[in-house]
Amino acid sequence: MKKILLALLILIVLISCNNSKSKTTQLHQLIPENTSVVLKINDLEAFKSDIKNNALISEFAFSKTYKDLASQLTILEDLSTINQTYVCLNTSDNSSFTLITKYNDSLFTKDSLNIYSKIIDSIYVGSSSKSTLDKLQPNTANTFNTLKQVTNNNASFSVFFNTKSANALGQSIVETNSNLTKTLALDTQITPEQIMLNGIGLSNDSIPQLLNVFKQTIPQENTIQNIAPSNSSSLLSFTYNDFDILKENLLKFNNTTSDSLTNDELFQTINEVATLTLNNDSAIILKSIDASATKEALREHQNIVSTFRTNDIFEFNNSTLFEDTFTPLVAIDNVTQYIIIDDYFVFSASETLLQEVIANYQNATTLKNNAAYKDCTLSLSDESSLQVIANPSELKRILSSTFNEDLSNLKLNNYKISAIQFIQDDNFTHVNGIIKKNKTKAIQNSVSEEFNVTLDADLLTQPQFVINHRNKQKEIVVQDVNNKLYLISNSGKILWKKQLNGNILGTIEQVDLYKNGRLQLAFATPKRVYILDRNGKDVAPFPLKFNDEITQPLSVFDYDNRRDYRFLVTQKSSLLMYNGKGKSVNGFKYVKSKTITTQPKHFRINNKDYIVFAAGDKMQILNRQGKTRVAVNETINFSGNPIYRYKNQFTTTTSNGELAQVNQKGNVSKQGLGLVNNHKLTTTNKTLVTLSENKLGIKLKSLELDFGNYTAPKIFYINDKIYITVTDLQTQKVHLFDSQAKSIKNFPVYGNSTIDLNNIDKDRNLEFVVQGESNSIVLYQIN
Fold first, then answer.
1. How many CB atoms lie within 10 A of CB 169?
2. Do 618 and 636 form a contact (C-beta atoms < 8 A)?
3. What's the distance, CA 715 to chain centroid?
């Protein structure tokens, strides 16, 4: 029995030892104790692209804060990792930062780095401070451990603030010297036009912190926008469901006791209080849930000072009531007059401001009807405990205060409305914020630039749209000269990048291999056939690898529209057919002849399938099995233009400018079109477009353009309307015409490639994407 007990004891000890060894150090446990702000970067490449392309951050480029931070974090340019990365900043020591990520042998692209570093449990830790590194030990109880658990790993990055930095941010937003909260964790989503924040704040009950004043209260709907003028500079609003609870919380926060002489009757029927600034004047707005009872509470303040547009302006003789009751949320102590509009009671020392409130309400020019406000608050909750709305000048003040730097040179006029809100919950506070660039309302028929996205290198392919199967909208794919493929959202955010084996041939197709509505990208490079899922991951068993070069774009056939795909690969004079599982289709046998010079295409005419391409001086027309379906005996001196279906005939041009057509019996007809060498052709079944030097032919009409270097024309058929486009690469102008060869209004516009045109979002306007500078794409909207 003793031997059995001894054996069990040894086993328990061994298991305990193994368990202790398996508790490896986590990244967040190595955050230095003196850290003020932490960036938790989930996708380093996306992070760098988001920062580089955001308009507001670009505005900061001149500032000392930006330059200091950029100089510290140049190491990120040399960092290459797909793992989470923590960047830890010590704001009390501007030169101190620490970098934490999983270690691998190829972590940096440069051998020599001006940084101290060491490896702890396969984690790389680099720091600009040797003392920080020397003192560093894994800490399972540091300030940031809890915050790490509540952040979203799908966010571009998250920001953690310790108490000092959270309070600095809060004091800038609320304009108070009070502490805001213990810690903040904010997930950050960045597009070229906006910065969106979502996260939580954690408070400490033992220390006075502003967000604690909303504990045990229930957030109410924000409605002050119904009465606040649309040109208000700032608006701070807070709500409550029980005034007595809020009052007790404020007394505790301010370390004061209730004044028995204070009459709280006015606030018992109020569920929202706001302070508003406009033209250097201030006002306090109360939203009543029982206007009659609120009026009764104001029975001692009924002396009418004046009347404006039938609205009485009353005298108010308790000027410090609001500051005494709600400090530090309200800091206005000179209220002398008030007005009543429906359920709203507006107090101010400025009669002019009260008149403006009346006029704007009557004219329906309140924030509620402000397009920028509506746009901004789509990303916010309807209810909040505390909410701050800022116009451009107020945003500039907040940013200047936050970074302790004069940022008056920032150009923020297009950031018409920004907002942040705090929503009390059990033991924590939700935080939502948005800074968004608002576009000027588009003039009908105008062409407006929506965004410009800069890539890591020059473009290799023309940008094109692909379908997002989740929302049925469109996104953008493009490849750079380093063979990196990008997927970019229709708001300009780079969603992912993928390194490919070579340059993409032709355009990218989309398939639904699993027949479940989820689309994949299909394309070929010179040595691979790729199928990528929505997230840029390879779909097994793809990519298929080839020793011999692929010489034409991948042809994707779905003969019966049943999603039983066939992938046709061209290698000089050979054709190889694969199914959706990447297996060779044994039933396809093509006897190779001469080099194939056009991408094989599939046409269905009168319930018959035709696979058509040019090989040498013959047009090959095959059936599904790769056998000759239609023999074409007459030779054609092909121009190099693709083969199209036009008027149910297989159509292309000859090198001497003739239109060459082959019918379903193999007969060849040729028609002189007067085209010169290097002409271009594109067709639908009913529309034929040619470009010969500077002459653009659309159906039977001819249009003479300025001499230039034009791309091949493209035809788009959208909403029962035909559009034809060419781009002059010499003058960098995109032209767009209708089927009558008439230029679409407000064209040409700037661009450096062929465009892709479609409706990519939920509105009715068309958008098109084009190359801008050598390393950027531009999205336009036709209004």
1. 21
2. yes
3. 29
Q: What is the DSSP string of 208-237?
A: --GGGGGTT---EE--GGGTSBTT-SEEEE
Q: Are the beta carbons of 564 and 511 closer than 8 angstroms? A: no
Residue 259 three-state SS: coil
- Quote the CA–CA distance of 338 and 315 in Å, as a whole number: 7
Collapse the DSSP code of 526 into the 3-class scheme (helix H, G, I; strand E, B; otherwise coil) and give the result. Answer: coil
Q: In degrees, to the nearest 5, what angle opens at C-alpha 482 toward C-alphas 481 and 486?
A: 85
Alpha helix stretches (DSSP H) within 136-216: 145-150, 163-174
Distance CA 352, CA 375 (A): 29
* 432 touches 403 (CB < 8 A): no
Tokens representing 377 are: 């608050």
Query: How would DSSP label each residue in 669-690?
Result: EEEE----TT-EEEE-SS-EEE
Q: Write phi, then psi, for 401 (nearest 5 degrees).
A: -70, -40
∠ at Cα 628 (623, 633), nearest 5°?
A: 135
Mean pLDDT, rounded, for 417-436: 93
Entry pTM: 0.81
Helix (H) or strand (E) holding 528: strand 528-532
Helix then strand then coil, % of the chain, to nearest 5: 20, 35, 45
CB of 194 closer than 8 Å to CB of 354: no
Distances (CA, A) of 434 to 154, 188, 421: 18, 10, 9
Strand, helix or coil at 709?
coil
Residue 38, exposed/middle/buried by CB under 10 A (0-12, 13-18, 19+)?
Answer: buried
Q: Which of 51, 47, 171, 168 is nearest to 101 (CA)?
A: 47
pLDDT tens across 103-142, in order?
998 898 877 778 899 999 999 999 988 988 998 989 887 7
Return all residues near 598 (Cβ < 8 A) that are at least 6 apart. Answer: 552, 613, 614, 638, 640, 641, 642, 643, 652
Per-residue pLDDT at 5 exceeds 50: no
Torsion angle (degrees, nearest 10) of CA 116, 118, 123, 129: -30
Cα–Cα distances (Å) from 734 to 249, 552, 728, 748, in that order, read 62, 27, 6, 5
Kind plus residue range of the DSSP H or E element containing 466: strand 464-468
In angstroms, the CA 47 to CA 619 distance is: 50
Tens-digit pLDDT profile for residues 374-394: 999 999 999 999 999 999 999
* Pairing between β-strand 608-615 and β-strand 601-605 as defined by DSSP bridges: antiparallel
Integer CA distances (angstroms), 751 to 328, 447, 725, 748, in order: 53, 13, 12, 9
Describe the crossing of helices 163-174 and 392-402 by its angle, rounded to 10 degrees.
Answer: 150
- Per the structure block, which two tokens stand in for 304? 């009418």
Residue identified by tokens 């960036």 is 39
Range name among 10-14, 98-102, 394-398 with the lowest pLDDT average: 10-14
pLDDT bracket for residue 516 (50, 70, 90): very high
CB environment 511-548: b (16+ within 10 A), e (fewer): bebeeeeebbbbbbbeebbbbbebeeeebeebbbebee
Q: What angle do CA 150, 155, 159 make, to 5 degrees?
A: 60
d(CA 252, CA 722): 70
Smallest CA-to-CA distance from 462 within 682, 692, 729 is with 729
